[in-house]
Specification:
Helices cover about 30% and strands about 25% of the residues. The longest helix has 24 residues. Strands 1, 2, 7, 8, 9, 10, 18 and 19 form an 8-stranded mixed sheet that branches. A 5-stranded antiparallel sheet has the order 13-14-15-12-16, sandwiched between helices. Strands 24-23-26-27 form a 4-stranded mixed sheet, covered by helices on one side. Helix 1 runs parallel beside helix 5, helix 1 runs parallel beside helix 8 and helix 8 packs antiparallel against helix 9. By secondary structure, the chain is an alpha+beta fold. The protein contains 13 helices and 27 strands.
Length: about 500
């Protein structure tokens, strides 16, 4: 078999990457070792940037369908709509600088089902029970040896991307360095039926860790001990022992489901690219799930990589385009590892940490500090460095574009719209007024753009904006200043090659 790109792993990151490749004109093939989706509830939502990335592809309503039940459940379990840093629940949504930019609550299996349906609608082939056992690359492409129910076969492609999770086979087979820090704690959680729960203390920190519990659910953050076999399933006995260790109280768990164990092991691939082989999602970075950042981080890897890799395999990529993927995404993941390590440090038992938590909690009562934590955990502070932009460029440049409210005037008729109304095809979008010099400047790239003429942007003081397929603002100009077409031309050449 042969294809343009082999995507290893049919989780959310692999499915979104394959869909992005297909939209951008490449032929992907997804190989997954499991016979069916695992159903494990490893994550329960995505942040605002990942939600906007999915919304740009028309998936917003499908995600919203999963939110009411989860919102009620979250309120029941935690009693607060505020975000947390190291389980200090003080991040106030109404204080944030962009309070309308929010994520979506959806369990990972449900998100995977939404993305599987989306990928299928694009005719993306997904082959289950296909385990990659060897990978060889040469100057012309990559050959993967795959174990299937029918026996071993070889698949040939121009490139291969490992989206196969924290224990990535691709990363191991190809020798990617994966430096980082070992775990300080082991977290365990499950839905349970339990005897003795009434004797447990309220959710919160204890002298040896942290306990979280509510009707039918229990979890521990255990700094005292870890399992001998981290890869085996979480058992009732192990969870009972951890509850006893964290609280000093014996309980009896009579039934257990949706059981998960994870650590704050924090590691990141030294590079995301070795020639024709790349990594994305948990294959490229693992960390504590505190702050709920991991799933969104991986989805944004896929959005960033998809259109660039498609241009590369089609032979249409400008110089350096594919290398911009690790250049842009590696620092973002490094920042997440940094803040999750800080959260683990703030959760450790002991009087020194108690004192530090009190001080951090007090600081979070200051609006600007609260906003700092909100920006960090939401990812809204992410800004890529585009050297072609002038020093006084609009502050939206390099950031992920919100779903702008716009007014489009056609033949004297005005209508309101959103940026996401023009992004489902996966192309870059240029919004500009009818008399803008940007339209003439972009004439040679119209075959690669969705150009929306006669546009007035109703937010952020913009008169024109170029949004890459992954949502990053490649060029923006303020309504208070004349549009400078030279930076726009440079942006178009940088991301989409020479004009036609």
């Amino acid at each position: 078999m042969s294809t343009d790109v082999i995507v290893v792993g049919a989780g959310p990151v692999g499915l979104l990457l394959a869909a992005e490749l297909r939209l951008a004109g490449a032929a992907p093939m997804v190989l997954e070792r499991l016979a069916s989706p695992s159903g494990r509830r490893k994550a329960r939502g995505v942040g605002p940037l990942a939600f906007e990335a999915l919304q740009r592809r028309g998936l917003g309503e499908r995600l919203a369908a999963h939110q009411p039940q989860l919102s009620a459940e979250k309120t029941k379990d935690h009693g607060s709509a505020k975000g947390h840093f190291a389980w200090i629940h003080k991040i106030e949504p109404s204080w944030q600088e962009e309070p309308d930019r929010r994520g979506a609550l959806i369990w990972q299996p449900d998100l995977e089902a939404v993305l599987a349906e989306y990928a299928a609608s694009l005719d993306v082939p997904v082959y289950r029970e296909h385990t990659v056992v060897a990978i060889v690359q040469d100057d012309q492409g990559v050959t993967a040896t795959v174990r299937t129910p029918a026996g071993e076969q070889q698949v040939r492609a121009a490139c291969l991307v490992g989206c196969d999770g924290g224990r990535s086979t691709v990363r191991g087979l190809c020798g990617f360095g994966f430096p980082g820090t070992p775990p300080l704690m082991t977290a365990r959680q499950a839905r349970v039926e339990i005897n003795g729960a009434e004797r447990l203390p309220p959710s919160g920190r204890t002298p040896t860790g942290m306990l979280l519990h509510g009707p039918g659910v229990i979890g521990t953050f255990d700094f005292a001990d870890g399992p001998e076999d981290r890869h085996g399933p979480l058992t009732r006995e192990e969870l009972q022992t951890s509850v006893r260790r964290v609280t000093g109280i014996d309980v009896t768990i009579t039934r257990l489901s949706d059981a998960l164990r994870f650590t704050d092991n924090a590691r990141q691939a030294a590079t995301y690219r070795q020639g024709r082989i790349l990594l994305a999602g948990d294959a490229a970075h693992v960390h504590s799930p505190n702050g709920g950042q991991g799933l969104g981080l991986g989805l944004l890897d896929a959005a960033n990589l998809g259109w660039k890799l498609a241009a590369h395999v089609r032979g249409e990529a400008p110089a350096g385009l594919l290398d911009s993927y690790p250049a842009e995404r590696h620092p973002v993941a490094a920042a997440v590892l940094h803040n999750t390590r800080a959260q683990s440090a703030l959760m450790r038992p002991g009087p020194h940490t108690d004192a530090l938590r009190d001080i951090v909690s007090d600081l979070m009562d200051i609006r600007e500090v609260n906003q700092y934590f909100g920006r960090m955990l939401s990812g809204l502070s992410t800004r890529y460095a585009f050297p072609y932009l002038p020093a006084d460029a609009h502050p939206l440049n390099g950031r992920h574009c919100p779903d702008l409210r716009i007014t489009v005037t056609t033949d004297g008729r005005r209508r309101t719209a959103r940026l996401s109304d023009f992004t489902r095809a996966g192309r870059a979008v240029l919004l500009a007024p009818a008399d803008s010099p940007a339209l003439a400047a972009a004439a040679g790239w119209r075959d690669r753009l969705e150009v929306v003429e006669g546009t007035t942007v109703d937010e952020h003081g913009l008169s024109g904006v170029l949004v890459r397929p992954d949502g990053a603002v490649a060029w923006a100009t303020a309504s208070s200043s004349p549009a400078d077409a030279d930076p726009l031309r440079t942006a178009l050449r940088t991301w989409f090659g020479p004009s036609s």
